[in-house]
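Folded chain entry
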Amino acid sequence: MNRYTIFILVVIMAACNSPARKAQPSNNEKHEKQPIQVIFDTDLGNDIDDVLALQMLLNYHKQGKINLLGISLSKANPFAIEYVDGYCNFNNIPDIPLGYVYDGVNPEDGSYLRQTLETSVDGQNILMPRRSIKDSIPKGYILMRELLSSQKDSSVIIVAVGPETNLERLLHSEPDQFSNLAGIELVKKKVKFLSVMGGLYGNEFDFPEWNIVQDLPAAQTVFEKWPTKIIASGWEVGNKLLYPHQSILNDFNNSSRHPLCVSYKLYGEMPYDRQTWDLTSVLYAVEPHKNYFRISSNGTITIDDEGHSKFVPAKEGMHRYLKVDESNIEYTLNALIQTVTGKREENQ
């Protein structure tokens, strides 16, 4: 065997015995793994679906799929501050920035805010808030200005699932210490799109939707003046996707200590399956590529003086709305359940 042949064999053997190199991710793969920047605007305390939606976002945050920048409350009840702070602490995600809608709508306690805060097991409260109305919680729209000003252009998704008071105030806001841009210009520069649960679309139903009419002037302003894309999830979407009570009973460890399960049982007489209105806006905002929903053509949504939402197709329109097919309900509902319970695989 000559020297050249020996050299070739050595090279081959070295190559076979060396550890395999991992394929380097493409630029697209690297981009996909970057967490989405999200601000959550919620009227938690009115309906229980806000709590389910919050749990989804906290699970996404834990998985690294999103960076939950902050939570602005659109329900004018101070117990909402303590509840959300305690809920984030329960999920081991403390100190998420909070904003509050001073002089907003819906000041009543509701059926689960105070009650869950007062629930204790073995002498210990299940929610342990560290912040309250006494801690100078910033105004919701001011918090949004602060968060938006520090983010890259066109990078933030706002998920809004209640009255649009904070959003209207954001649009009308003036330059401040956080940004020299007025509200509309700041939103246009920093927001990728607004995922909003509000309105009613299609021909199956026709009535003013609840979120819209709670602060009707705010809703009219937002749909008229919001300068980026709006993706609306109407009442009819969440109405077709019912969260099963069996999940509340069986899918959470120590459910008697879990504030979601406790609040769900306080909100209504069990067993009941609740509509997933707010959850649909969260799911689309974080995973629009999964085809959980169909989506309308471009158009314009307007809100009349009674609160009816009207969609007019327009090629250059900035608004679209979600649709769900009967054949897709199981697929979409399963994704919602697994995301709420935190049981989805990382690669899903």
Observations:
- The domain at 37-341 is CATH 3.90.245.10 (Inosine-uridine Nucleoside N-ribohydrolase; Chain A).
- The chain has a mean pLDDT of 92.
- The first strand starts at residue 36 and ends at 42.
- The chain has one domain: 37-341.
